[in-house]
């Protein structure tokens, strides 16, 4: 029992309840109660390694979304650290690691040799225009010209085909552009 | 870019040029040769897959020395010397006698640049 200034008596338990309940590592958080004094920063500090020593993480102290976000950030940070370390570490033993299997090696060598053969081959002849050798050119030029009736019939056919192509039109049956938010027959 | 009929003949001209060059190989990072020529004096192990594929690993490790990207590596042995050039995506490996002119060997990437430019599109990233 402790005597106060006013002369009353108070117990230690009563003093604890009035003065010592607002700490981050208080025992009351172990019960899982979330209140306005629940610290959100403590969860992040614990993940980054600068948390308070000896403090057990509360079971359901932080909100679920913040907990998942902090865990994702921690994993990303850890992945970045591992990646940087792997990029900077000089691993001499990696030279002995076999990279390719035998059949892959043979297949790739075959591809390279065929590609090299194509590279060394003369270029293929142009398909659109080709030089006519002189004997063939003479034979073609010495043949009688086309008859005027055939030329006229070919020209008329070409003109009719051109008119038919130009007469092609698209006639839409219904409006192609519908204002946003409105449908054809139902309420939005 | 000069025209040439055969890449092998182009490289064999260098082999026969009395510079001490014993073997030339143009390959990818896994050691698969696109074109390779060698003389009987060239050691077979220097043209093998295991030796050729080691360069890419060595070059990657050498790039971690805080001297930026590795471009060439010179291997000096008692009877031979090997010069390897990193010309992504191809690698040029030149094997020569120990008495060969290393300065000439180190400039072979410039000499073979027309050929290398034509061969680089053949190598796809695997």
TrEMBL record, chain B:
Family matches, as SMART domains: MAPKK1_Int
Gene3D superfamilies per the UniProt record, alphabetical: Dynein light chain 2a, cytoplasmic
Pfam families: MAPKK1_Int
Single GO cellular component term: Ragulator complex
InterPro entries, per the entry: LAMTOR3
Gene Ontology biological-process entries: cellular response to amino acid stimulus; positive regulation of TOR signaling
PANTHER family, per database record: RAGULATOR COMPLEX PROTEIN LAMTOR3, REGULATOR COMPLEX PROTEIN LAMTOR3
Family classification: Belongs to the LAMTOR3 family.
Protein name, UniProt field: Ragulator complex protein LAMTOR3
Species: Amphibalanus amphitrite (Striped barnacle)
């Amino acid at each position: 029992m402790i005597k106060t200034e006013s002369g009353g008596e108070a117990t230690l338990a009563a003093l604890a309840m009035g003065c010592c309940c607002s700490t981050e590592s208080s025992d009351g958080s172990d019960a899982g109660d979330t209140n306005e004094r629940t610290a959100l920063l403590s969860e992040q500090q614990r993940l980054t390694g600068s948390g308070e020593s000896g403090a057990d993480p509360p079971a359901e102290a932080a909100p679920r979304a913040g907990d998942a976000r902090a865990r994702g950030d921690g994993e990303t940070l850890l992945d970045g650290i591992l990646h940087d370390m792997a990029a900077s570490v000089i691993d001499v033993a990696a030279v002995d690691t076999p990279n390719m299997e035998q059949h892959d090696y043979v297949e790739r060598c075959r591809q390279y040799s065929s590609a090299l053969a194509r590279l060394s081959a003369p270029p293929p002849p142009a398909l659109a225009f080709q030089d006519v050798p002189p004997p063939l050119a003479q034979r073609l030029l010495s043949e009688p010209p086309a008859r005027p009736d055939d030329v006229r019939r070919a020209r008329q056919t070409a003109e009719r085909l051109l008119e038919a192509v130009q007469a092609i039109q698209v006639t839409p049956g219904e409006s192609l552009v519908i204002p946003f938010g409105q449908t054809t027959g139902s309420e939005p | 870019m000069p025209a040439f009929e055969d890449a092998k003949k182009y490289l064999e001209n260098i082999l026969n040029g009395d510079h001490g060059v014993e073997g030339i190989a143009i390959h990818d990072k896994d050691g698969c040769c696109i074109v390779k020529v060698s003389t009987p004096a060239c050691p077979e192990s220097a043209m093998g897959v295991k030796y050729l594929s080691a360069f890419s690993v060595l070059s990657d490790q050498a790039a971690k020395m805080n001297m930026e990207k590795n471009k060439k590596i010179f291997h000096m042995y008692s009877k031979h010397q090997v010069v390897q050039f990193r010309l992504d995506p191809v690698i040029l490996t030149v094997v020569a006698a120990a008495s060969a002119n290393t300065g000439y060997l180190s400039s072979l990437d410039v000499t073979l640049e027309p050929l290398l430019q034509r061969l680089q599109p053949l190598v796809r990233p695997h």
